[in-house]
Design a protein that fits this description.
The structure holds two protein chains of two kinds. Chain A is of the alpha+beta class. Chain A has three helices and seven strands; from the N terminus they run αβαββββββα. In chain A, a hairpin with a 4-residue loop joins strand 3 and strand 4 (71-77). Chain B is α+β, with helices and mostly antiparallel strands. Chain B is built from 23 helices and ten strands.
Chain lengths: 151, 664
Amino acid sequence: MKRKNKRLTFVMIALIFVGSAVALVLTAFEENIVFFFSPTDLESKKTPTKQRFRLGGLVAKASVKKQGGGITQFQVIDATNSVLVRYKGILPDLFREGQGVVVEGRLNGSVFQADEVLAKHDENYMPPEVAEALKKSGQWQGINTTGSKAQ
Amino acid sequence: MTAELGLFALTLAFAVALVQSTFPIIGATKNYISWITLAGPTAITQFVLVALAFGCLTKLYITSDFSVLNVVQNSNTSMPLLYKVSGVWGNHEGSLLLWVLILALYGAAVALFGQNLPPALRARVLSVQAMIAIGFYLFILLTSNPFERVFPPPPDGRELNPLLQDPGLAFHPPMLYMGYVGFSMAFSFAIAALVEGRVDAAWARWVRPWTLAAWCFLTGGIVLGSWWAYYELGWGGWWFWDPVENASFMPWLAGTALLHSCTVVEKRDALKSWTILLAIITFSLSLLGTFLVRSGVLTSVHAFATDPERGVFILALLIVVIGGSLSLFAWRGPQLKTTGLFQPISREGALLFNNLCMTTATATVLLGTLYPLFVDAVGGDKVSVGPPFFNSVFIPLMIPMIFAMAIGPLLNWKRGDLFGALGRLKLVGISSLIVTGATWAWHNDGPVFATLALGLSAWLGLGTLVELAGRIKLFVPGAGSWARVCRLTRASWGMTLGHMGLAISIAGMAGAGGWTQESIQTMKPGDTIKLSGYDFTFKGVHQRKGANFTSAVGTFVVHKNGIYVTNLSAEKRNYPVGKMQTTEAAIHTTLGGDLYAVIGDHDGNDGAYVTRLYFNPLVVWMWIGAIVMVLGGVLSLSDRRYRIGAPRQSRHGHAKELEAKSMI
C-alpha cells in the first residue's frame, strides 16, 4: 500500500468509528436525558407525561405512609406546591422527613411513580438542584451544605 | 503538639517541593550537575516530611485527640481501631493528605529505583512531580488544613460516616489514589520528554512500568468500590454510571489505552506524539476526577458535602495543569521525530484500534458526565444523564473492540495476516456462536446485549487461549511446549491474563446485567417467596449490638427443591452517634449466581418487614475476572526487562535487537 493510501485507511477507519460514536451519543441523548423539576415547575411548566424525569424538594413532615407490600407514599414539597410520590422498595438509609430528596420516575396522573430514590453518603448534603429550587421558591433556610465548619 | 508538628512538616515539605520543582529542571537544561543531583535527595526528603505529617494525623486519630477539628468530625472513641485509622482518609482534608503522600511516594520511588534513568530525564521528571505537588500543598494549606484545632475540645467526636465503616471501603480510597496519582508519573515523563524533545523505545520502557503499576491499583480500586456498592448499598447493583464512578473509570479507560500505545512506542518506535498526548489526557482525567468528587458540582450518589471555595481552587489547578501541559504539547509536540506510518493490518494496527476504541469510549463517558454541567452553565434546564445513556452508547462501542481483542494478538508486528488469524479463530468463532445460541435458547427473556456479551466473552476467552496455545506450540508434536511455557516472558503472561480476566468479567457483567431476578414485598415470619427456583423463608428479626451500633438482623432460610442451601442474615444497622442507618445485605455466593437479601423497615404489625430479594447470576465472575486482570498486570510488572536498565549508549542496537525479537 502506498503511504498516502495507508494514511487514508487510518483516517477512514477513525472517521467511521468516531462518526458512529457521535450518532450513538446523539440518539442516546435524545432518548435518555432526564430532566429535573421542582413541584412548582410541574405546576407551571408543561409536564412530561411519558418521559422519565427527576423530582426534587423536601420530604413533607408527617407525610410518609407505609401502604403495605413494600410501598411507601410521601409528599415532596417546595414553598408553594407539593407532589404525591409513591415508591415501591426499600428507602435509602438517609431518607428522612424534612430532608431534601431527589426521586426519579414517571408522572402517573397526579401521582409521581418513583422507581428510584437517590441516596446520599452524607446527611448534610443537599443535592445542588434541590438547593437551587428551594432558593428559588424562597424556602431556603440555610441548611448547612458545607458540613466542614459545623462545629 | 502532634498537630503542630504535622502542619510544620507539611509546610516544610511544601518548601522542599519548591526547590525540587525549580533547580533540577533548570539544571538539566543548563547542564549544572549539582542542580541535577538535587532531584533525588529533595524527592526523598519531601516524602519523609509528608509521611511524618500523615503519621501525625494518624496518631491524632488513634489517640482520639478531639482538640483537632478533623478528628472531631470523623472519629469517635467507640469506633474499632481499623475505622479510626481509615477515618484518616475518609474525609476531604485527610484524603488530600493521602493524595500528596502517594504523590511523594512515587517521587521517592523514582529517586530510589530510577538509578538507570539518564540523570537529566530523572531530574526533569522529579521537578514536574514537585510542580504537581505544589498545587496540592497550596490547596491543603490554604483551604483544607487537616490539623486545624478546635476550642474547647468536645468530649467525643462525631464518628466516621457509618457507610464508610466497612473493611472494603477502608482500602478503596488508598487503592484508587495509588492509581490516580500513579498516572502522574506517566504525565511527568511525558512533560519531561516534551521539554527534552525526545521520545524513544527506552523512554517507553521507563514509562510503562509506572503506568502499569498505576493501572493495577486503579483496577483494584474501582473493583473494590464496585464490590462495596454491591454489598453495602443494598440495591443489588454494582455500577451506576454515577459521575463519581465515571470519574475513576475515565482515567482507567485512558490509562488502558496508554498501556497499549506504550507498547507500540517501545517495540516499533511509532505513535510517539499520540502516546505523550495520551499520558497528559490520562492524568488530566485523574485530576478531573478529583475535581468532580471534591467540588460537589454534580449530583452524585457519592457526593460529599463540599465547599465552593475548594471547588474553585481545584478548577483553577485543573486549568493550569491541563492548559499548561496541552500548550506545551502544542508547542513542542511537532518537534518529536515522527516515524513512518505502518500497515493497518498488523499488531501495531490492532493496538491503534484499541486506542481508538478506548479514547472514543472515554470521550463519550466524559460527554455524558459533564453534559449536565454544560446545560446548566448555558442557563438551560436541569438535567441528568443516567445509566440508559451510558449503556446504549458505551456497550456498542465496546463490541468491536472486544471482537478485535481476540484477533490483535495473533497478528505479527509490521505486517499481519488477517485471514490467517481469522482461520485460527474458526473453532473459537463456532464455539462462541454456540454459546450465544444456547444462551438465547435457554433464556431469551434477557436483553439482546447480554446474550451477545456472553458470546463475546467466549470469543475473547477462547481466542486468548488459542493465542497462548500457538505461542507455546501446544498442538505441534515434539515442539517442547512445556519448555516454551517456562520461557514465556512475564509480560506476555500479563497480556494473556489481562485479556482472559476481561473475558471472565464480561461474562459476569452480562449475567448480572441481563438476568437479575428481583422481588420486593412485605414478609411476615414464616412467609416463603420463590425466586429463580430458590425458596426464601423469612424467620423474623432479632436485635444485635455491635461496637458502635445496634442492628436489626433478619434471617432467611433458603431451600432449593426442598434441600437446604443456606441461611441469610441481612442487617439494618443504626449508628446512634451519627444518627444514621446502614444496610448490610446478606449474600450467598455461588459460581452460578448470588443469593442476595436485604431487609427494610418493619411494615405493619406481627413482625412483618419489607424485604428485597435478588438472584444475581454470575456476579462472582466479575470479581474473579478483575483479580485475574490485576494479577496479569502484576506479573507483567515483574518482567525482567523493566528491572534491568536499558543500555544508554547502545540504544540503537537495542532497538534492532527488539525488532529481531518481535519478528520471531
